[in-house]
Write a structure and sequence with these properties.
- 51% of the residues lie in helices and 9% in strands.
- It is α/β, with parallel strands linked by helices and 716 residues long.
- The chain has an eight-stranded parallel β-sheet with strand order 6-5-15-14-13-12-11-7. The chain has a four-stranded mixed β-sheet with strand order 1-3-2-4.
- The longest helix has 34 residues.
- The radius of gyration is 26 Å and the shape is globular.
Length: 716
């Protein structure tokens, strides 16, 4: 026995230098990818700390980073870049990385420890609204961004359809049965959440094969960075063809979701967790997924997202969650179940007693809850901190990628501190559950910084933001960005609401942004600053296009008044200006690639090998951002974006149709009908989604120069 123990100890001792070399080489690989030749100025050293910790110091001309693993090393590198080089690394691969030629020295020795062990990132929806067309090129950079921000629990859903394809084949389903069960690529997030089947399918087998290869690279790199990727588990979602193959299954049809035409065609089927087949499918899936991708024993299972559960009986709910967990634990004895809390906030009927029964049906510490929308609703406060189960405080930020000028820095900063002080030992981490990759990336950087004991105040953080945008310390810029945060970004906006990017009508919701005047002033003050930094130029465009949208809203209200009083001359004059504002907004957004529809469409088409396949992917790409489903009403414009090609070729034509038809109605002495116009609009939207409307892109101009012209045109 002693010999065996000595041999094991010797193996561990011998392995430590290899592990250290792996961590330091992984960190250096990251530095080379983002910094090029400047990476030679960094030295990475592995420490024996059992806790996530990094130190930062200078040694001669070198910046020395010491940390317990590659993830902490990456976090330290980012800390240095932000606070010493005034450099922000974007999560978009093509955004430039701007660093000084001479790297600043670190005075003394900086030591920072993590105060929360879990740092979660991504959302089922992000895979549809932002990432469906990504290749390894984009993913490699995103994983670098995650490492730089200390993320260690990424949601890793790519390629799971290949796993399910193999599993369903084992259960006797044909190729056609399975591929027709899956949705189109942009819609897989909702198929994975058991919201609908088949829409925009069948899914090409070539897509699945290439996604499988991509997932293997993603997981390998994430694990190199000491991340614990969250893979999928079986949540009960089964193909209709399986019900035909295996008579007697205990299942239910979930409630209708998504307002589809012919909703029965897309309706999902949920297998009861108490049916013996549930555990068999769970085991088959986990075993096949592990064979294909390995496992880190952490699985996301969300059995009824935005659909009704099969029962609200407390005993039954407890039995259901216990059965789901037991099926998972039977397949993987080390399994832990990760679940989002969104549906329990969003759907009616989830009382405290029902939630307690559901959560406590799982053994303690085997269920990790994502408190999904904490900047607005903190469920841990109303559920006794999820009745003892560990949880992660999450910042959501946007729905469908629509809410652009939203980054509640004050709430993020202080709410997390309050949770840390009051929530107890179940508070395990922070997470970003963004539905789309919003342009205000810096708020997510703050979120992940709060998982560490980083010194400084909220004012210090805002000053650092200004420094990164300028590339230098600038007292005037610091004042502008502080006011931008407090007067615009921190102000709550209407839930899930945009105006220009929603279908026109006379009866639209009357919700004007309370920060309109402040936004105009911030835009003007930004233009007076001087910087070549890409992030600064993006801010100019982002604030400016919001100012134009608010001005468009004011014009719409005037147009409505002119319509009500039969002022045809006023309608024509105001309508002309409304169209002009949209053209100018399209020109402004064309100044920065963040607002590019062309990149989205080109990336989608690259997945096709034939013209037919390219068109298939583009139809997916166009529809999800515009009409969304196949119905006149429902989810249309949920993911509307202020992007150049959409503004020029989709939103402007719709608003022009509205303006012209309203004027025509008054010329004929008739009333405008929102219902009739919606039908006309829907015909145009379907044509756009089916590639029958060409996309036009404005010519790119200088962002600052154009902003000054537009500000003088509309606000002086």
């Amino acid at each position: 026995m002693r010999k065996r123990l000595w041999a094991m100890a010797l193996m561990i001792v011998m392995a430590l230098p290899i592990m250290a070399a792996n961590d330091t080489s992984v960190a250096m690989g990251l530095a080379k990818r983002i910094l090029g030749t400047q990476a030679q100025h960094f030295v990475f050293r592995k420490t024996a700390d059992s806790h996530d910790t990094f130190t930062l110091e200078s040694s001669g001309t070198k910046i020395v980073i010491s940390a317990n693993n590659a993830n902490s090393m990456a976090m330290a590198l980012n800390y240095y870049l932000k606070n010493y080089c005034h450099t922000a690394i974007s999560w978009y691969k093509d955004d430039p990385i701007e660093i000084p030629t001479t790297l600043p020295a670190v005075s003394g020795k900086i030591t920072v420890k993590a105060r929360l062990p879990m740092r979660f990132f991504l959302n089922y929806c992000t895979y549809g609204y932002s990432m469906p067309w990504w290749t390894w090129r984009e993913w490699e950079h995103m994983i670098d961004w995650m490492a730089l921000n200390g993320v260690n629990m990424p949601l890793a859903l790519t390629g799971q359809e290949s796993t399910w394809y193999n599993v369903w084949r084992k259960f006797g389903l044909s190729d056609e049965d399975i591929r027709s069960f899956f949705s189109g690529p942009a819609y897989l997030g909702w198929h994975r959440m058991c919201n609908f089947d088949s829409f925009m399918g069948p899914l090409p087998k070539d897509w699945m094969n290439r996604q499988q290869a991509l997932q293997k690279r993603i997981l390998a790199r994430e694990r190199e960075f000491n991340m614990t990727p969250v893979l999928s588990g079986f949540a009960g979602h089964i193909p209709g063809k399986l019900i035909e193959k295996i008579p007697g299954l205990k299942y239910t049809d979930v409630s209708y979701w998504g307002h589809f035409n012919n909703p029965e065609r897309y309706r999902c089927h949920f297998l009861f967790a108490t049916d013996p087949m549930y555990a068999k499918i769970q085991r088959a899936f986990i075993e096949e997924q592990t064979r294909m991708y390995g496992t880190d024993h952490l699985y996301c299972i969300d059995p009824f997202n935005e659909v009704d559960p099969p029962t609200f009986n407390c005993d039954s709910l407890s039995m259901l969650s216990r059965s789901i967990y037991e099926s998972l634990a039977t397949a993987d004895k080390q399994a832990k179940w990760l679940q989002m809390s969104w549906t329990y906030k969003y759907m009616p009927g989830w009382t405290g007693e029902r939630l307690k029964a559901l959560f406590r049906g799982v053994p303690q510490d085997k269920l990790i809850m994502l408190d999904y929308w904490c900047e607005n609703v903190q469920m841990w406060k109303t559920t006794e901190a999820f009745y003892g189960q560990p949880f992660v405080w999450c910042y959501l930020n946007n729905f469908g990628g629509r809410n652009r000028l939203v980054a509640p820095t004050d709430r993020i900063y202080h709410y997390i501190d309050t949770t840390y002080a009051q929530a107890g030992p179940g508070f395990k981490g922070v997470g970003a559950t963004l539905e789309a990759l919003d342009v205000n990336q810096f708020a997510f950087g703050m979120l992940f910084d709060k998982a560490w004991a980083i010194p400084g105040s909220l004012t210090d953080w805002r000053n650092s933001l200004a420094d990164q945008r300028m590339g230098r310390v600038d007292s005037t810029a610091r004042k502008v960005y502080n006011d931008y945060c407090t007067q615009v970004l921190d102000v709550p906006r209407p839930y899930n609401y945009t105006f220009v990017e929603s279908r026109p009508g006379m009866g639209k919701r009357d919700k004007c942004t309370p920060t309109r005047e402040a936004q105009n002033e911030i835009w003007h003050r930004l233009m007076q600053l001087q910087s070549d930094r890409d992030g600064f130029k993006m801010d100019i465009v982002n604030v400016g296009r919001q100012c134009l949208e608010e001005h468009f809203y004011v014009l719409w209200r005037k147009f409505r008044v002119a319509y009500d009083v039969y002022d045809l001359q006023g309608m024509r004059s105001i309508g002309k200006e409304m169209k002009e504002v949209l053209r100018d907004e399209a020109a402004l957004t064309a100044c920065h690639p963040t607002f590019s529809l062309k990149r989205w469409i080109d990336d989608a088409r690259r997945w096709g090998r034939t013209p037919e396949e390219k068109n298939y992917y583009e139809r997916n790409a166009r529809r999800i951002l515009t009409l969304w489903n196949n119905n006149l009403s429902g989810l249309n414009d949920y993911a509307g974006r202020p992007w150049d090609g959409l503004l020029q070729s989709f939103y402007l034509p719709r608003w022009s149709m509205y303006i012209d038809q309203a004027i025509s109605c008054r010329e004929q002495g008739k009333d405008f009908s929102d219902d009739e116009f919606a039908k006309t609009c829907y015909q145009f939207e379907e044509k756009f989604c089916e590639l029958q409307v060409p996309i036009e892109y404005p010519q790119k101009q200088d962002a600052v120069a154009l902003s000054k012209q537009l500000y003088a045109k509309y606000f002086q």
